[in-house]
Amino acid sequence: MGIFTDAFPIFGTRRRSYIIINTSLAAISWAALSFTPHQYGKLLTVALIVNFFMVGFSTALFYRQQDVLHLNTQTQGILQFLGGIGSVAAAMWYGLTCKRVNLRNLLLCLTVSTVTNLGYLVYSSLSRARVIDGINGVGYTMAECALMALAIRATPKGSEGLGFSLMMSVRNFALFGSDIFGSWLLDKYRVPFGALVVSNSAEPAKESAAPAFASPELAEE
Q: What is the pLDDT of residues 154-210, one digit of tens each?
């Protein structure tokens, strides 16, 4: 892919245009979920295509904390702990709420995840980092719970274990693979940290619209 971008610039740029195209293709893939038949195999295929275009920034965030904010590993651990507290609180809230609210409405949690993720655009001091990491732990976990609930309900009867594990494998591949891709963009092409944040935040924004309509029967449960 690197050779391709070097050899064929688009609109005079070799990086920016390809990132925009990549994000657009991801948006189209999420939109495709709206028209995907309520069948496990087809949903899984679209999920694979969607996750192929994701961009992560976990590693970029780690080095931003060290190189820009000059945090030591102990402080970084405390920030992860604050995110963990937010995650536990969100999981408890979801456990109480999911019994009274249908999945279609709970998928709006993905919108919350988008907003909290964009907080990393102003990740410029330790005080801000504490707040942003804590709040992002809430938004991320809310979105994860909603998506896992959708994955569970989409698995075919009789092979729930295999179906769910396959869905989670796609999710884990996207989670760690996108981080490698984002780190590669940062190291090799010096893509700004903010650009990685925006691209990553676009994913739950697309998800918040598409899955809610991909399977009306399941979403209303």
A: 777 777 777 777 777 777 776 677 777 888 888 888 888 888 887 777 665 555 554
pTM across the whole model: 0.67
Cα separation, 17 vs 52, whole angstroms: 18
Q: Residue 154 in contact with residue 215, Cβ under 8 Å?
A: yes
Helix (H), strand (E), coil (C) string for the chain = CHHHHHHCCECCECCHHHHHHHHHHHHHHHHHHHHCCCCHHHHHHHHHHHHHCCCCCHHHHHHHHHHCCCCCHHHHHHHHHHHHHHHHHHHHHHHHHCCCCCHHHHCCHHHHHHHHHHHHHHCCCHHHHHHHHHHHHHHHHHHHHHHHHHHHHHCCCCCHHHHHHHHHHHHHHHHHHHHHHHHHHHHHHCCCHHHHHHHHHHHHHHHHHCHHHHCHHHHCC
pLDDT tens, position by position, 73-84: 999 999 999 999
Residues 6 or more apart whose CB falls under 8 angstroms from that of 205 comprise: 110, 111, 114
CATH 1.20.1250 fits domain 2-219: yes
Residue with tokens 């009789």: 158
